[in-house]
Amino acid sequence: MAKIFTLAGDQPAAAATAATAVMALETKLAKASRTLVERRDPEKNYHKLERSALPALAPGFDWELFFAQLPLPATEKTVLVGQPEFFQALGGLLTSEPLADWRTYLRWHLLRQTASYLGRAFVDERFAFYSRKLSGTTEQRPRWKRVMAATDSAIGEDLGQLYVKTTFSPSAKAKALEMVKFHLEAMRGRIRAATWMSEPTKAVAYKKIDTMRTKVGYPDRWRDYTGLEVSRRAYVLNVLAGSAFETRRQLAKLGRPVDRNEWLMTPQTNNAYYEPTLNEMCFPAGILQPPFFDEKADDATNYGALASTIGHELTHGFDDQGRQYDWEGNLKPWWSDEDVKRFEARAELVAKQYDAYEPLPGLHLNGHQTLGENIADVGGLRVSYEAFKLATKGKKLEPVDGFTPDQRFFLAFAQGWRTNDRPEQLRLAVTSNLHSPARWRVLGPVANFPEFRAAFGCSEPVANATPIW
Questions:
Q1: Is 43 a catalytic residue?
Q2: With contact defined as beta carbons under 8 Å apart, do 71 and 98 qualify?
């Protein structure tokens, strides 16, 4: 922080004083914040308040002035406050801490968030801390790649139109949709086989599967970026213009019907998501590429590689968070009390399994912090394996390169996570990420997977964690 303040024009002594003030304020705000584990419970983080009640929650903050600057329409009478205790603490700090410290704090965050788009000295200093120090990264990505990422963030669907023309064919989309169909059928089978789940709860779970929407490849309607000015001015000003445009776009949704055709990722993104409030899965063209997917590859390879994608995202609809949303995306109870207890007992076994993993000496995974992702990893592998069996039912599958179809399924699954992590990155991930590190996203799911052990002639597991799905 002191180095950044110095680059921004402060003398070294003033920069050090500013950094100390910001760190003290950040620490107080952090102590008032919920932990990652506490923030994972949707019900406990849902607090609907009247807009008029906010001054009592955090006195000292001019809410209406803030909303006017956004601007938040006056017609919006209620708001959701995820962490009321944080805003209570904020209200106190606004009066107990000097105004000069708050100005320094806001100045710091402006510099922190824009450092990547300023001159080389700022860019290098940000990389030195956030990448080299925290993650162990030794080399910065080329500038063109960093600019491409900023373009993806600001006008991603314009970029996406160029991307899908060259990378994602109609036949690839049809193949991916067919795979999704078999995964949905496999998930129905897993629910049917869940002896711990009552029939009334199963009936609603089937309805959730039947109404789940799937988006593959790219949007049917591309986003309109009219109103966003991009010009040959300072790079950072174009980035800020993109951010302001997106804020206005989001605020414009207020009071309107939900657009269920909107994508929350750009087509070129190498990722996927399940959105519980919409009950939908999305698989961008960017992840439907080798090694995860190839329309010309055999089923064993494709289903194995996409176990960490289709199976994973589908299972998120029934993990410890996703299960709390119904088929319409509403946060409301639809499980019987006994079913909830049985689910939580099984989830606790998953948490215990991952608690035992030790990526670095003395540093264990936090099984409750990563619980939702671990449930999706373990259940996703099971769902994808059974989808693979459904897709190849009645087909004669031959070994390839000496590997059986089952072996190639699991090899493709593992190869999708093939990654090297430096110790710094591992430590950062364990302490701040809701996902387990890549290595344990393979070891965890296969640890108690009988078909994996049979395929490779492994001994029986020492401790058999009861699977949820």
A1: no
A2: no
32, 90 in Cβ contact below 8 A? yes
Distance (Å) of CA 27 to CA 20, 23, 88, 100, 208: 11, 6, 16, 17, 42
- C-alpha span between 451 and 119 (Å, rounded): 55
Residue pair 385/409 in contact (Cβ under 8 Å)? The answer is yes
- Pairwise CA distance, residues 307 & 320, whole Å: 19
Burial class (CB in 10 A: 0-12, 13-18, 19+), 22: buried
Residue 325 bridge partners (DSSP): 331
Instruction: State whether residue 280 is helix, strand or coil.
Output: strand
Options 157, 377, 386, 406, the catalytic residue: 377
Rounded Cα distance, 400 and 415, in Å: 16
Nearby residues of 404 by Cβ (< 8 Å), 6 or more positions away: 455
Q: Is 326 a catalytic residue?
A: no
For residues 394-404, one letter each, b for 16 or more C-beta atoms within 10 angstroms of the residue's C-beta and e for the rest, the string is eeeeeeeeeee
Quote the tokens at residue 171. 């036949």
State the alpha helices, DSSP H only, in 216-336. 235-251, 299-305, 310-316
User: In order of start, what are the domains of the chain with their CATH numbers?
Assistant: 2-140 (1.10.1380.10), 166-220+264-456 (3.40.390.10)
Residue 56 CA to residue 83 CA, distance in Å, equals 15
Catalytic residue among 313, 319, 326, 373: 313
Mapped to the 3 state alphabet, what secondary structure does 67-91 carry?
HHHCCCCCCCCEEECCCHHHHHHHH
Q: What is the pLDDT along the chain (469 residues), one digit of tens a residue?
A: 999 999 999 999 999 999 999 999 999 999 999 999 999 999 999 999 999 999 999 988 999 999 999 999 999 999 999 999 999 999 999 999 999 999 999 999 999 999 999 999 999 999 999 999 999 999 999 999 999 999 999 999 999 999 999 999 999 999 999 999 999 999 999 999 999 999 999 999 999 999 999 999 999 999 999 999 999 999 999 999 999 999 999 999 999 999 999 999 999 999 999 999 999 999 999 999 999 999 999 999 999 999 999 999 999 999 999 999 999 999 999 999 999 999 999 999 999 999 999 999 999 999 999 999 999 999 999 999 999 999 999 999 999 999 999 999 999 999 999 999 999 999 999 999 999 999 999 999 999 899 999 999 998 775 555 679 9
CB 323 within 8 A of CB 336: no
Q: Are strands 213-217 and 280-284 parallel, antiparallel or unpaired?
A: parallel
**Would you call 248 helix, strand, or coil by DSSP?**
helix
